[in-house]
Design goal:
Elements lengths: L1 H31 L2 H25 L11 H22 L5 H7 L2 H6 L4 H7 L7 H17 L6 H28 L7 H15 L8 H9 L8 H7 L16 H22 L6
Length: 279
């Protein structure tokens, strides 16, 4: 029986991923049909997201450290937070439009199609222009790595790769959980944005500039600290302002797994609670 359930889950997962890929390919072809518009919006996205780092750079015209962190160290936080949020935004960022679908009744169409609703909503209006944020954040991250005196070991390489993958999963889980909340509160997209885009902005700065209670909330509440703060403490050899056990710096995979499970359960609960508009 267990093997049958596992086989069924694997089949459903393959179907969802294949459907997601088809929808993404459709929207990508549509975007590339107008190359000038695509490149203008992509470059504009890159320039707009880069203004956040300009603000940080201006701060360092008047100081050599912020909260005990140097500019290259802040650039590392900026790059990793922007990169992970950018990946999640590219892959599932369309989830924040679910409230509009609930209001206008188009969610009914999504639910009656022979394609998982989560795959449809995540891929709907897939915006390849969001690559601009990823490229810009990756550029800043590359600059920071070139100016940090890091002694790369196999363990640090593994933690760095885990940071990128798990950070994207955590942000993606927040997107999905926020969308599930919109089944109940259709106008709650701004609440979701406060944890995604707002969380990214917070993670661009060191934890030492925030109140310890707020930092604890990002560890034991919405686990944003596992996106880059805690792994960065290990990679950059920084002390932990909260004095947490050392293994917390390596717990991003656990936090990502738990986040994904909770987001999945909330999504299923949201779909079951959904009531058609009747229009």
């Amino acid at each position: 029986m267990t093997s049958g359930l596992a086989s069924g889950f694997a089949t459903e997962l393959r179907h969802a991923l294949r459907s997601y890929g088809w929808i993404v390919a459709m929207w990508t072809r549509a975007a590339l049909a107008y190359p000038a518009s695509f490149w203008m919006t992509t470059v504009g996205n890159m320039a707009a997201s880069g203004m956040d780092f300009v603000v940080i750079a201006v701060i360092f015209l008047h100081t050599s450290a912020l909260g005990g962190w140097t500019l290259p160290q802040l650039a590392f936080l900026y790059g990793t937070s922007g990169l992970t949020l950018g990946l999640a935004d590219l892959l599932v960022g369309s989830m924040d439009q679910l409230g509009e679908r609930v209001r206008d009744g188009s969610m009914d169409t999504t639910l009656v199609r022979p394609v998982p609703a989560l795959a449809q909503q995540a891929a709907d209006r897939f915006a390849l222009r969001r690559l601009g944020r990823i490229v810009q954040a990756g550029t800043v991250l590359t600059w920071s790595l070139g100016h940090l005196d890091l002694e790369w070991t196999p363990a640090k390489v593994l933690v760095f790769v885990s940071l990128v993958v798990c950070g994207a999963v955590i942000f993606g889980s927040v997107f999905v959980a926020g969308a599930a909340f919109q089944f109940v509160m259709a106008d709650a997209s701004e609440v979701q944005n406060s944890f995604t885009y707002g969380g990214m902005t917070m993670l661009q700065y060191p934890p030492t500039v925030f109140a310890k209670d707020l930092v604890r909330c990002t560890v034991f509440g919405v686990p944003l600290a596992f996106v880059n703060w805690l792994p960065a403490l290990y990679l950059l050899d920084r002390p932990d302002p909260l004095g947490l056990p050392g293994w917390f710096r390596f717990a991003s995979p656990v936090a990502a797994l738990l986040s994904a499970v909770v987001a999945g359960l909330l999504w299923r609960a949201g779909v079951r609670a959904y009531r058609s508009t009747g229009s």
